């Protein structure tokens, strides 16, 4: 049966390592017992039926690959709740550039030397080394922060790409926004009291029908980290594509896998990583989900959609994640 995992659909790079290689993580099909269930007020969601250790790979986000233009059109016509913006050149390059910069130079030299001498064979590791490594790894796990370069999730700047809007539209949407902010606060206060089951769609209020200025909402699958201002030390892959190269979008509305049911939370227990499996082209990462903390069986799995509140003119989406630090709105 097709499990929706990209590896069943796409060719793998001719990697010579065995299937048991520990560097293969997202390439494996679903390993955990996950359940799709009906939430109280956010449509369907996913929960784990067993405890999930911190850092475990959960699943990928599979769907149809669209260009920016097709996604805009489809999003407006068919709905946009399953559009995931794939990471983009600058974001990926910025992450790679800072990678392991916090490792002391001496350690790097040692690694290089071991690699050269070929004496880094696992079999030659003494048992005391193993113990040292085990305790070191435990300690490292405690400090574990996803997202590279020593940044905690909260420090990331989110990015949701917008179409250019003309001045009049912009002013109109800014005025609308201010009024919405006021209304939404009043409405949210009364909504919070209402614990009855409601449909998430009812909370998506279309304020304007002006499709000209509406861009579909997409969750940004990777932290932007101010990528638009990022200037690489090295020659950027951008030079090969041109500055107007569009971003690619994964749309799980018609075809997708279990990843499409992951809801948003302002205090998520899942994080997302770009994984390059069948290509190193920075425009086409696999979008893979991992456990941000130890997740107890039965807990809903959620990630941070990284939407920018107010970024989609005419659309307000209230957040029902229930986290103490809930921002109140997704859009
Ligand atoms: C990718 S889908 C997630 C699966 C969805 N719940 C379903 O039933 O198919 C994203 C949509 O789920 C809903 N959703 C997810 N997280 C939410 C949250 N914290 N609060 C309100 N609605 C949420 C919104 O309607 C959003 O557009």
UniProtKB/TrEMBL annotation:
GO MF term (any one): histone H3K9 methyltransferase activity
**All residue ranges annotated as the Post-SET domain in the record:** 315-331
Q: Name one GO cellular component term.
A: nucleus
Where does the record place the region Disordered?
A: 99-208
What are the subcellular locations of this protein? Nucleus
The record's principal subcellular location, in a coarse class, is: nucleus
The record's PROSITE patterns line, in alphabetical order, gives: POST_SET, SET
The biased composition feature labelled Basic and acidic residues covers 105-118, 133-146, 166-199
The yes or no answer to whether the keyword Mitochondrion is present is: no
- The residue ranges flagged as biased composition, category Acidic residues, are 119-132
Task: Spell out the SMART domains in the cross-references.
Answer: SET (SM00317)
Gene Ontology BP, a term: heterochromatin organization
Q: Where is the signal peptide?
A: none
Q: Which residues form the SET domain?
A: 32-306
The lineage's top-level taxon is Eukaryota
> Pfam families given for it?
SET (PF00856)
Q: What are the alphabetically sorted keywords of the record?
A: Methyltransferase, Nucleus, S-adenosyl-L-methionine, Transferase
Q: State the name under which the record lists this protein.
A: Histone-lysine N-methyltransferase
Could you tell me the gene encoding this protein? HaOG216779
């Amino acid at each position: 049966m097709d499990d929706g995992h990209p590896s069943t659909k796409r060719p793998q790079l001719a990697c010579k390592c065995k299937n048991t290689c520990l560097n293969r993580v997202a390439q494996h099909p679903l390993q955990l017992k996950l359940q799709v269930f009906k939430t109280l007020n956010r449509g369907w969601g996913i929960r784990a039926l067993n405890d999930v250790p911190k850092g475990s790979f959960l699943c990928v986000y599979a769907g149809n690959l669209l260009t920016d233009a097709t996604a805009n059109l489809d999003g407006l016509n068919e709905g946009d709740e399953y559009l995931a913006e794939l990471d983009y050149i600058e974001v990926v390059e910025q992450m790679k550039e800072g990678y392991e910069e916090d490792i002391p130079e001496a350690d790097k030299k040692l690694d290089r030397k071991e690699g050269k001498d070929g004496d880094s064979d696992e079999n030659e590791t003494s048992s005391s080394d193993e113990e040292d490594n085990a305790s070191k790894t435990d300690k490292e796990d405690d400090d574990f922060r996803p997202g590279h370069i020593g940044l905690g999730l909260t420090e990331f700047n989110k990015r949701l790409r917008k179409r250019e809007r003309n001045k009049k539209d912009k002013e109109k949407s800014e005025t609308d926004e201010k009024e919405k902010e006021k209304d939404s606060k009043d409405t949210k206060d009364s909504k919070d009291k209402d614990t009855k089951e409601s449909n998430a769609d009812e909370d998506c209020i279309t304020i304007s029908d002006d499709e000209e200025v509406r861009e579909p909402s997409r969750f940004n699958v990777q932290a932007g980290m101010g990528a638009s201002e990022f200037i690489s030390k090295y020659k950027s892959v951008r030079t090969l594509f041109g500055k107007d190269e569009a971003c690619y979008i994964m749309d799980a509305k018609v075809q997708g896998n279990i990843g499409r049911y992951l809801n948003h939370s302002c205090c998520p227990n899942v994080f997302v990583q770009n994984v390059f499996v069948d290509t190193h082209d920075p425009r086409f990462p696999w979008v893979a989900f991992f456990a941000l903390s130890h997740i107890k069986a039965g807990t809903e799995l959620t990630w941070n959609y990284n939407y920018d509140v107010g970024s989609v003119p005419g659309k307000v989406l209230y957040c029902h994640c229930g986290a103490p630090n809930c921002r109140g709105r997704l859009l």
